[in-house]
Amino acid sequence: MAAPVNKRTDCWRSPEVYKHHEQQRVCISRPKYRDGRKAKAVKVYTINLESRYVMVQGVPAIGVMTELIQLCALYGIVEEYRPLDEYPAEEFTEVYLVKFQKLTSARAAKRNMDEKSFYGGVLHVCYVPEYETVEDTRLKLQDRRSYIVRAARNRERERTEATQESPTSSDATTLLNKILPRRDETSKNENTREALNVSHYSEFPPLPLPPEEHYSFRQNVPTEDKMGTLHNSFSNIEQPQAESLGSNPTTSNWDQGTEGRLGSNPVSGVRLIPRIAHLASRKRKMERSEEHSANVSGENGPLIGPKLPEPPKLDMEDESLNTTVTLIRSTMTQVGSFPEVKKVEKKAKPRRRI
Amino acid sequence: MRKNDSTEAPERFQYLQSLVTEFQDTDSEEAKEQVLANLANFAYDPKNMEYLHELQVPDLFLDMLAEENENFVEFGMGGLCNLSMDPECRDVILQSGGISLVTNCLSNGREETVLSTITTLMNLATPTTRSKISEPGILQCMLRFSLAESPRLRNLAAVFLQDCCSEEQVRQAQQQMQGLQTAIGIPLPKK
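Predict the joint structure of the above. Result:
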């Protein structure tokens, strides 16, 4: 839980105004092809600039500290916080120092709260790594390094698997190329995915991949903008697991959980399962579907074809959040199963002839 | 820019390639700074490491260290700090004589550049290169930084001295400093 007062002097010493606290001017001269959606300054982010400690300036001095910390807690567990009375602040505003449990939470908070309106004021959020201890700095670097090494190993493993699978499945690959719609498949990832699918189920000609709209929920996976600023992204950067939240869950956090899950496993989104393996289960489903045919929309006969992938099971690592997610999903299923409401046709009144 | 993985990879590579091309072709210092900063920021995401490696961006960053433009040096070193965490890019940097090029920037006047330099040196420490990284000159520099007013500089220097060399080496460097007073001349970066 967050502690409002901290008497340790080492990380709560008198604040100094550093250059990286200042908001730099945005760059307005970028050519269109590399101009992002949001104007940003020309700045390079390294692990040294980021920190679990952030400073929030521009908080209106109207006694909204609790609300501010509740807002911060949406992005992750807040370990400590305190007002920075000594820090130079604009008139009628206050400055707060907030320490998050994780760097990813601080990143999320900075991304979502910086330049945002808050009780009539505009917040300016920046990292303040000068408040770290030596141990904080060491752990930060170690975490970052192990994440990069892990990512490199995963890439290496994918590359090795792709090279190993491709010689054994050449016939199936030829068939695959005939069946699949023609597109420019120069992506290594795509070839890897196809090779993997084909290698596992090479007895049967794989059916075409489902339409791209199926992956629409993946649009929330964060990537860099055109200027490469990924530091603003909060999910799936440092930790693949979903964040545990200190306060009220929101749908954006649900997306975060989804992103964490999906971002780490893009290849297994589609599974082509041989018919033989499912004949028995399909028979059972047929019998069941005859009973429930009135409720199911779009199913006219026996199931044919590969089983569509089930929606990913989310685990928010918190019981209440899991309950919320289940409720939302069931509501969405219910809403989706209702037939479209027909417009009530107004009976045209006969015109009175005068 | 948010697209599915299947179409993203070639487009991403092409985009990075166009950035590198613009950097090489443009005469505008301002455009070069912007592109360099973009590339350095892209180097923060491990997804891009392979493409940047293919585009020889580590060498591009190393070339920036000898430039007169302080922004070029700062952004180039920031890019190296980001890239050098990846083992493949680290090896490329080492093969191109990265240690000596990076070490030269320990005396840079900008704090951000020096911080990136210290972190890069830590990333470049392997069993083979550890002896080079912990040469007395570098250790004396770190000892000087560990007494600096800036907390970030102090912390990073402390981590370097604790993790990248032995206590004996630090002690020897301290003795040399007291004896020769060579490190006092190393300027501290401005904030």
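Strands of chain A lie at 53-60, 78-83, 93-100, 117-118, 121-122, 124-127.
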